Amino acid sequence: MSSRVTAVAHANIALCKYWGKSGPLDTPATPSISLALDSLTTTTHVSRIDGESDEVLINGQVAEGIERERVVRYLDIWRSENYISGHLRIDSENSFPMASGLASSSSAFAALATALNELSEQRISQTMLSQLARRGSGSAARSISGGLSSLSSGDNPASRLLVPAEDVPWGMVVGVVDSDDKKYSSRAGMKLAEQSSPYYRRWVLQARHDYRYMLHALRSWDLVEVGELAESNSNAMHGCMLASRPSLMYWQAGTMDIMHSVVSWREEGLLAYYTVDAGSHVAVLCHLDDLSEVAERMQSINSVVRVIANRAAGPAGLVACR
Ligand code: DP6
Predict the structure, then answer these.
(1) Which residue lies with its CA nearest to atom 6 of ligand 1?
(2) How many Cβ atoms are within 10 Å of 160's Cβ, its own excluded?
(3) What is the Cα–Cα distance from 61 to 277, expressed in whole angstroms?
(4) In the prediction, which pLDDT does 101 show?
(5) Contacts with 18 (C-beta within 8 Å, 6 or more apart), sequence order
(6) Could you tell me the distance, in angstroms and rounded to a whole number, from the CA of residue 65 to the centre of ligand 1?
(7) Does the fold of domain 170-310 match that of domain 4-167?
(8) Are 42 and 133 in contact (CB under 8 A)?
C-alpha cells in the first residue's frame, strides 16, 4: 500500500453550467458539459501522518479556517465510508489564481480524490471516483474524466467522457482580470440563487434544455452553434445570479470589457465565444488555429492582467507513489 502519493488534475470550464444543487448528496440541479484545460493544473501530494489531525497546505501556506475545514470535511467523507483511515498531510499547488471563479475547486478535488483513491484500502471504480470527487466540488467530477465531459443532474451522477482531449479541435483562452477573492463561494451562491432569485426555476429549465441541445451540437463540431449556445447559457446563469437578493454580481468592469471585445472580434470574422463562471475572469472558446490570435487580442485589453491559453486536457492521474 502506498504511503505518499502525488496526483495531477486539470481545471475545467463549463460550456453548459452546473448552478444549483438538489438532494442529500449535493446532486447538481442542472446537467453540465465542460472542457478540461491543460494550463490550469493542481498538483496534490498526500501522505499518511501519525499526528492527531490532518495537515493541509495550499500553495505552500498552511490552510486555515473555511479553506482547511472544507478539505478536512472532505477527508471525513472518505473516512466515514472506510475508504481511508487515519490522518493525512495534503499539500496542494495550483498553477493559477484560486477562489476567483477560475474553477480551482474542480482540479483541487479531482487531484485530491485521485490521490486518496491510490491510498485507499478498497477498490474504487472510475464512476465511484467521479462521484466522490463531486462530493468535494460538483465540477471536480468532470475533471476526473477530462476532455469534453458531461455531468448529469440525476441521482448521484458521475461524469461521462464525451470526447477525449486529443480529439477536441478547440481551445480556451482565459483572461484574468483584477478582482478580490469572490464574496460568495459557489456553494453559498447556489443556495442564495435558489432561495431568492426569481429566475432560478426558469434557469434550471433552460439549463436542461441547453444541455440536450449542446449534446446534439457537439456531434457536428459546429463551433458557431456550440459557441452561441455556451455564451447564452453563461448569460442565462448570470441573469439568474444577478437577480438574486442580494445580487450575485461576479462580474467586474474587466469582465465586461472582454465580453464586449469578443463580440466585436466575431463581427470582424474571428470565431470566439465567451463564458464566465462564478467569478470575474472570462474563458474564450475558439478553434485551436486561432488560439494565439485570441490570446494576443486578449492581452491588448487594458483591464486584463494575465492571459492563459489552453488546449484540451486529459483526465486526472497519478504522477508518483511510494
Ligand atoms: C459556475 O463545482 O465550484 O463554475 O459543487 O459547490 O463546489 P460546488 O460548486 P462548483 O460550481 C461550479 C459552478 C460554475 C459552473 C460549472 O463549473 O459548471
Answers:
(1) 187
(2) 16
(3) 26
(4) 56
(5) 28, 29, 30, 31, 32, 138, 139, 151, 153
(6) 21
(7) no
(8) no
Q: Evaluate if residue 270 carries a pLDDT over 60.
A: yes
Ligand 1 neighbours, Cβ below 6 Å, are: 14, 17-19, 32, 103, 105, 137-139, 186-187, 277-278
Cα 102 to middle of ligand 1, angstroms: 10
What are the boundaries of each domain within the chain? Answer: 4-167, 170-310
| Residue 26, all three cell numbers | 449535493
pLDDT for res 97: 66
- Mean pLDDT, the chain, as a whole number? 94
pLDDT the model gives residue 247: 97
26: pLDDT strictly greater than 70: yes
Q: Ligand 1 atom 1: the closest Cα is on which residue? A: 277
> Which atom of ligand 1 is the closest one to the Cα of 18?
18
Kindly report the protein residue whose alpha carbon is nearest to atom 7 of ligand 1.
137
For domain 4-167, is the CATH number 1.20.1250.20?
no
Q: What is the CATH number of domain 170-310?
A: 3.30.70.890
Decide if pLDDT at 121 tops 90.
Answer: no
Residue 182 has pLDDT above 80, yes or no: no
Q: Give me ligand 1 centre to Cα 123, in Å.
A: 27
**Residue 101 Cα to ligand 1 middle (Å):** 9
Which of 237, 223, 241, 287 is CA-nearest to residue 17?
237
